[in-house]
Amino acid sequence: MRPPQVRHGHWSLATAAVTSVAGVVKKVPFSSLSSGESEFGVKIPRSGIYGKVNSVREPHLAILVKGGGKASSGALADVGARESILSPSFARAFIGDLILSVSIMCKAILKVMTMNSEVPKLGSSLLVSSVQELAKNPLKEVPPRYVRTDEDSPIISHTNPLPQVPVIDMQELSSEEELKQLHYACKEWGFFQLINHGVSPSLVEKMKMETQEFFNLPMEEKKKVWQKPDEVEGYGQAFVVSEEQKLNWGDMFYMITLPTYLRKPHLFPNLPLAFRETLEAYSVELKHLAMKLLEVMGKALGMDPNDLRVLFEEGHQGMRMNYYPPCPQPELAIGLNSHSDAVGLTILLQINDMEGLQIRKNGIWVPIKPLPNAFVINIGDIMEIVSNGIYRSIEHRATVNSVKERVSVATFYSPKLEVDMGPAPSLITPQTPPLFRRIGVADYFKGFFSRELRGKSYVDLAKNPLKEIPPRYVRTDEDSPIISRTNPLLQVPVVDMQKLSSKEELEQLHYACKEWGFFQLLNHGVSTSLVEKVKMEVQEFFNLPMEEKNKLWQKPDEIEGFGQAFVVSEEQKLNWGDMFYMITLPTYLRKPHLFPNLPSTLRETLEVYSVELKHLAMKLLEHMGKALGMDPNDMRVLFEEGLQAMRMNYYPPCPQPELAIGLSAHSDPVGLTILLQINEMEGLQVKKSGVWVPIIPLENAFVVNIGDITEIVSNGVYPSVEHRATVNSVKERLSIVTVYSPRLDGDLGPAPSLLSPQTPPLFKRIGVADYFKGLYTRELRGKSYVDYLRIQP
User: Fold this and answer.
1) What ranges make up the beta strands (E) of 488-560?
2) pLDDT tens readout for residues 46-58
3) How far is Cα 211 from Cα 394, in angstroms, rounded to an integer?
4) Which part of the chain has CATH 2.60.120.330?
5) Interval 375-397: pLDDT, tens
6) Element spanning 739, H or E
7) pLDDT tens digits for 602-656?
8) Radius of gyration of the CA atoms of the chain, in A
9) CATH code for residues 21-32+518-696+721-788
């Protein structure tokens, strides 16, 4: 019995607006494709700094620009006004009735600041209730506004021992070995724990005691340092920009600590005397520590010592004290949602013994277990820019628990405002060009005002501006295409199909699927002559005149045909490539206007190739099931007579490949993907340990990768891995992807033979047809759909 026909949803907008990229390349002279300074140059659009920004970092960022300086232009950010930073209304807001020219205003504010007058307000946040007070009530469930369905599951791992962040000994950093360990920590983790840091234990213990006592004060006392309306410093929560916004399960007290003239007069003096004295000493000690760490990082990077000194000397320091009370439903709330820090360096002191800090490593949330007498250090976005992408700022978050409160103090160190920042000049060579544009430090911070803390996207806005390719193809949401500068790159494992009957090769397959999600397959059994014929026919297909390809164009509200996939809105950024997608098996699902209109030789070749790859996919799935220890029936029942589709990809040369993407980062929502590279141009990259690793296809090999469905079926043992297609300025790249999925009338979920009381299901069960319906209504982006199917603990 045939399964029901399924309409997969509005997968792609098949309109004239989404034109052939190859046509754009051929017809439009790039010298005429100016995007306009207002969107891609240095001018500030009225809708926000550098256009749309999806995230804000820590609350200190909204304040740091208060020091004025080269780019301050006086009042920098009345976020509600959404006006140019040079407007007279801003001047009136901060300097009363005195209307000054921009240059005079900057000088006046700097002069007033040095005289310890009131510092202008920059940044805002709506006032919300104290979570600490809320948690004192006998709550049985989390109030709706604190339920965070947008955060990943707090589950970290079910089987393997968790990795731990590196540990650095400050006293040993004069040795080459420890310096290399620091370099590794900053490059591969973005986090490390610092022991023997030189800050006296008595001062650290005093800081812990005073912070704990501060949060133990009656609410009447804490209200003396409460946030004022439309300010971010003070006691409360930061960057609450709407009444509908979800809230974090925690209170914070944030203030600028250095330079002293930027301190709010209603905050620091109202703190308990003992706390003030401790903070004075602690802030100076951590400033010295930050500068020492930056100095050795510069040395590890091989930088000119002046590069970091000029930028960070006498920089800005802020402190945020965090209180995360017990939560009745910790799996539904988040203490501080995932983000990266937009500063230079963050130094965290854990006050009590409760864990909660987690960092994202290889797509998994890894908890940090603070060591005694250690600081937790992490790289901020500014250091990522200064290091030209060698050191990465990493997403992290604070989770909560139902047992006991967690308390911490984060100290942030950033550059002084009156300088410009960008990749360090001493790191720039013809072989390592700058990945980020230069920008005034104050201008950099403006983009954070009046936005919700979210993810890690703002640093990408500092990428070199685009002046050639059409604006809709500019992808600021993609990581830099640069992969590595020093170490030889890893390569995906290689599996020999003919040897899979041996235990050793089966273990190699298991390793490849579990640790990489990708492998290259040799001796796959598909005849060389057929493979070469497919390559030739696909090349000739894309060489056809556009009039011929128009016969195969996507119809409105359909996903199959020639064009682009996963285009769900007219505003969406586009990939730099064309594709032709169609279902190939079972044959009755083929679109009658597509397959018959292909050139006859391509039709004949695809008929044979589709059958051969179906058999290959089933053999591979059988071996994977064996390697997993599954019941053979589990794979067979799900995938036998399954759904097969092919996508032919054409990525033309791009004048500025660093600003475009051939196919945005994603995981495949299918069971198995088998890729055949058509020509010799590389472009496929997989994300491994947070780094994009290029795949260099082997001769006569297929590139095989695990899809989301197999991740679900394997109950998370075999992960689907994010990958993408980059482009180049030299030559087009072509490939053909064959994807194999279960038949539509089946149910999808973890294989029953893999489940036990010790390994419960991590994913919910769903009909295959329903799975695809939900998938094709979304924009292609990361792994959000498979995460949606995870069972929340």
Assistant:
1) 494-496, 518-522
2) 233 223 333 333 3
3) 27
4) 21-32+518-696+721-788, 151-226+246-416
5) 999 999 999 999 999 999 999 99
6) strand 733-741
7) 999 999 999 999 999 999 999 999 999 999 889 999 999 999 999 999 998 888 8
8) 28
9) 2.60.120.330
